[in-house]
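Thread title: Can someone regenerate the structure for this chain?

I was given the following input by a collaborator and told the matching structure tokens would be attached. They weren't. Posting the sequence so someone can regenerate them.
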Amino acid sequence: MRLTGVLSTFHRDINCQQKKCIKTGFYSSRENHWSNGFCIMFKCLKTFLRQAIFSYVAIAAAIIFPCLIFITELDAIKNAVEDGTIISVVFLLNLMIDAIKGKTVCFALPILCALPYTASLVEDRNSGFLKFILQRTDKRKYIISKEFACAVSGGIVILAGLIISLFLIFLSVFLFYGIQSDINLIWNLIIRVGRFMLLFFFTAMFLSSLGMMNATLTSNRLTAYISPFIFYYILIIFHERNYISADILYPVNWISADSMTDMGIFVAAASLALATGLIMAIHFLLAKRRISNA
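Best answer:
Regenerated them for you:
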């Protein structure tokens, strides 16, 4: 039933876009053929993103992430309350930063970012709905739209979890204590959290794309969910046991914003974006062959 609804939504969106292209003259000449193709691909991407971001799984993952942050620092909050420490925004922001630098959040990242959409292409293919979707668009547009939707949705889920955490911190302190801290100090901590957000977003994009590539390679949806974690964990173990000496291959460094300058964060984000693009290119070749053999 859910797949039927998704397919009908997809068909409706593409039909509307095709009618719009006809009205605007996109079919009037060969020169406008590229513009028409871009319009349809953009509509595919919009449909897939809506499916991924507003799914129950994505919403659950975005809620679980701040819960993990809270659980990680629960003992610290309990001790602060017992000692009579003032629970201020600055105190909670520092706890949040400690939590997202910890191992619990670090290991949860590759699992949660893979949940929304990494297995979507394999599910379409195995369910038989792919042949109906390809009646409305071609393979190239379908694959590229799926890749971008998978990467962006993985990053948005983690980003949403961090934003929810910030919102809950300010809401809880404002309701129970009022804003009693220095505004400049609060702003500096928010900027510090924002640096982490940027790295978390691009790391999640990379891991989500990796999960989709492995799922397409094996034609197994479970691979989509577990392969990012296995890859992430193996790199950590190899680095900690000195099998790999390069710091760039240590996943903990990908999200360690405090140890980087502003230029270092930009370089790390650009490197992760480049790696994501490389994974997408490899996946595109794999997916074309898998779809042709379907």
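Residues 17-34 have pLDDT under 50 and may be disordered.
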